[in-house]
Amino acid sequence: MTDKKSTKGRKGVRAGIEGAEVVVFPGNGDNKPAKAEDSRPPPGVSRRFRMDTSGLYRKNGDDKQDTFVCGPIECLAETRDAEGNGWGLLFGWTDRDGVRHEEAFARSMFSGDCGELRSRLANGGLTLASGPAAKNAFSEWMAMIFSSERARSVARIGWHEFRNGSVYVLPTEAFGRSDERVVLQQESPEPDLFGVSGTAEEWRNRIGIVCRGNSRLVLAASAAFASCLLTILGEDGGGFSLVGASRLGKSTALRVAASVVGGTPQAGAEGYVRSWRATGNALESVALASCDSLLCLDELGQLDPREAGDTAYMLANGSGKARTNRTGGARAVSRWKVLFLSTGERTLADLNREGGRATKAGQEVRFVDVPADAGAGLGLFELLHHADEPGELAEYLREQTGHLYGAPFRIFLRALTDWIGKEGHQSVREALRCRVVELTSLYLQNRPEASGQVRSVARRFAIVALGGELATGSGCAARPVAVRMSRLSSNSAISSPRMAKAALSGGWIARKQKFLRVTVMPNRRANGSGPRCVRAGSDGKSSMTERWAGRSF
């Protein structure tokens, strides 16, 4: 009986299979098997999550409400450094005021509960749910997210070399040509002091024009533009210190220099200025955050006298201390190149003396003291323009630098990187080096016996002058500039760094209004009708300054 039922059952199954019909399910009308890539979620999306205009949600099934995770956020690219390490993600989101934010985060921050990552996103205005389920969902989403787009990440601002060219990176923008987008990715980012307010034209017409006729202001603004040339030229860092009594206007010059490069909405250009009141370790991070740009430091007297000499070496040499990591191995040494501008009532030699240390020649070469008093009875100023007294002009500049800052430096970088992109990095470097050599030789043409230390000081002034020349947008004033600057050492011998500083800083600054205008006005023909002609080089080819001509602000 059992065998008979079993046989009959098999016949019934076989008959059912033979008489079966194909049923087409909705959404799969072509009845084709799904490919492996079709089952994979699109970049930045998981099948467990959904994103709409209100934010990111974790799906909980048909009968449960989805869990809100955070506001709308998009993964723009995956990042990695030039060596293929330091992978991360570039996110973009809009805060509740409608302001767009983009920031790169290392994937090492995605481990655990992502607490630090959540804090930085919240600081940028992204709405984040606070419940345990939402936090777990956020960590889950971060762990599985990916993107087909790629970007190169760098850990500091300034110049970076890639296979296809050089790129200058600021916290929110990169200048230059690259196959991929280049972004700043830092584990502990510094506050962004490279803000922009107003236009370069407004800066030139309200601040730059006041520099004309005022040597210390020209020095300050020229140094700001020249700061990004050190790496291209292959020069070491260094700087200048405006020294003089209180209320001469030293801080005014510092604010003018800062207004070229950046500032903050809260303090204007003054927000870009740093203080000497810091430890040596803190100044390392400050210098790294100002790499290839101007480092403005106020009140040298606040620096610990025992650290003054070592700090001067550190800033100029561009290298921090060697330190060990948690496992006892060597950390990567921080490296930078900065041109710094300082103010103070005392010189570096005064601080060394107070600290019981001798001032070395190398320190004097790297840290050049410039008298803040212009000698015209007007403190730092020589020409008051529309003002009736120095205090009125200083107050005017304080007001203008409070809301006009940052734009000139970005225009300058854009013109410089365009030039490099068209003619090549090596060609631009050679042209700039030739001009620096020419200026340095003119400064010292009557002093062939000048020592290497003296020549180093002269070369630094030449680099600053070059920055000012390039910032005018035309090189037609180059020859008159060189001729007048060559008169610096005509009346006195230069046999030591101290004497060199006196001759180069005093003479160069005293005559500056005759040859350097620093984005104040485009150079004009005698009749004021347009740019003057530029002479070709001795080889008949266009000169460096001619190739720069036309790139005015």
Q: Can you describe this structure?
A:
The chain is α/β, with parallel strands linked by helices. Helix content is 37%, strand content 15%. The protein is built from 18 helices and 16 strands. The strands form 4 sheets. A 5-stranded mixed β-sheet has the order 6-5-4-7-11, with no helix packed on it. A hairpin with a 7-residue loop joins strand 4 (73-80) and strand 5 (88-94). It is elongated, with a radius of gyration of 31 Å. The termini are far apart. Mean pLDDT is 80; it is low at 27-42 and 474-553.
Query: For the largest beta sheet, what order do the strands appear in spatially?
Result: 6-5-4-7-11
Gyration radius over CA:
31 Å
The termini sit apart by 104 Å
The mean pLDDT is 80
Q: Determine the strand fraction and express it as a percent band.
A: 5-15%
What's the assembly state of these chains? single chain
Shape: elongated
Structural class: alpha/beta
Count of strand segments: 16
Number of helices: 18
Low-confidence stretches: 27-42, 474-553
User: Largest beta sheet, briefly?
Assistant: 5 strands, mixed
Question: Concise description?
Answer:
With 553 residues, the chain is of the alpha/beta class. Helix content is 37%, strand content 15%.
